[in-house]
């Protein structure tokens, strides 16, 4: 049996982690400054119903399964779309805070984001409902452990919030464009 030493997981704020993140941001900022149009892209995921209401979404070799709870006709074998949205927003914010901390040289020991949403099932199920189909409210709480001055932490959180793609997506009205293909089924 061979002994092997494994590195402990990299915690936010570790010097090599901060240096790696900051280096990546510096390279990207340089590319953005020197190459007009750099960083513009269209991304696409494909979602397929696989069993009942359970879906699988795939993109870049990653697969995410999604389901509804039994009360909504699912089997509860995966997170609901609402869970994924909250997770996407919370993850995007936490990552953004770490990116901005690394870029500003602010050491952080931990980052935690709690995302809460209010919704009304009637808005999703009834065409005559007064409530919207989506969220009635979205709130998030940020907890950052850092010995840096409070104003430095507040500044990096403010900057990261302004730069968060997911926070922008839930805050700004987007107007999705739909296309539809109807394929003749096999009988």
Short recap of the structure:
The chain has 187 residues and is an alpha+beta fold.
Describe the protein's topology.
Layout: H1 15-34, E1 46-51, E2 54-59, E3 62-66, H2 81-104, E4 110-118, H3 121-125, E5 137-145, H4 150-163, H5 165-171
Helix pairs in contact: 1-2, 2-4, 2-5
Report on this structure.
This protein has 187 residues and is α+β, with helices and mostly antiparallel strands. Among the domains are: 45-79, no CATH class; 80-172, GMP Synthetase, Chain A, domain 3, CATH 3.30.300. Helices cover 37% and strands 19% of the residues. The protein is built from 5 helices and 5 strands; from the N terminus they run H-E-E-E-H-E-H-E-H-H. It has helices at 15-34, 81-104, 121-125, 150-163, 165-171; strands spanning 46-51, 54-59, 62-66, 110-118, 137-145. It has a 3-stranded antiparallel beta sheet, with no helix packed on it. Strand 1 and strand 2 form a beta hairpin. Helix 2 (81-104) crosses helix 4. The chain is globular and about 60 Å long.
Provide key terms for this protein.
GMP Synthetase, Chain A, domain 3, 3-stranded antiparallel beta sheet, disordered N terminus, alpha+beta, about 190 residues, globular
Give the N-to-C terminal Cα separation: 58 Å
CATH superfamily of the domain at 80-172: K homology (KH) domain
Give me the CATH fold name of the domain at 80-172. GMP Synthetase, Chain A, domain 3
Give the helix/strand class.
alpha+beta
Report the helical percentage: 25-40%
The H/E string reads: HEEEHEHEHH
Radius of gyration: 21 Å
Strand order of the largest sheet: 1-2-3
Give average pLDDT, whole number.
88
What's the total number of strands? 5
CATH class call of the domain at 80-172: Alpha Beta
Give the CA-based shape: globular
Largest sheet: 3 strands, antiparallel
What share of the residues does DSSP label as strand, in percent?
15-25%
What's the CATH architecture of the domain at 80-172? 2-Layer Sandwich
Flag low-confidence runs: 1-10
If helices are DSSP runs of H or I spanning 4 or more residues, what is the number of helices?
A: 5
């Amino acid at each position: 049996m061979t002994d092997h030493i494994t590195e402990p997981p990299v915690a936010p704020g570790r010097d090599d982690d901060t240096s790696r993140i900051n280096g990546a941001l510096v390279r990207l900022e340089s590319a953005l400054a020197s190459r007009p149009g750099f960083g513009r892209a269209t991304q696409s995921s494909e979602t397929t119903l696989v069993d009942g209401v359970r879906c699988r979404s795939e993109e870049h070799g990653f697969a995410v399964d999604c389901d509804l709870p039994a009360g909504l006709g699912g089997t509860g074998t995966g997170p609901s779309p609402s869970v994924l949205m909250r997770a996407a927003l919370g993850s995007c914010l936490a990552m953004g805070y770490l990116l901005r901390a690394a870029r500003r040289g602010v050491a952080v020991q931990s980052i935690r984001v709690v995302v809460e949403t209010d919704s009304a099932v009637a808005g999703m199920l009834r065409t005559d409902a007064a409530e919207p189909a989506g969220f009635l409210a979205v709130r998030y709480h940020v907890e950052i452990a850092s010995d840096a001055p409070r104003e430095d932490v507040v500044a990096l959180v403010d900057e990261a919030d302004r730069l968060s793609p997911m926070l922008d997506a839930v805050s700004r009205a987007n107007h999705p464009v739909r296309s539809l293909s109807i394929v003749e089924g096999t009988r």
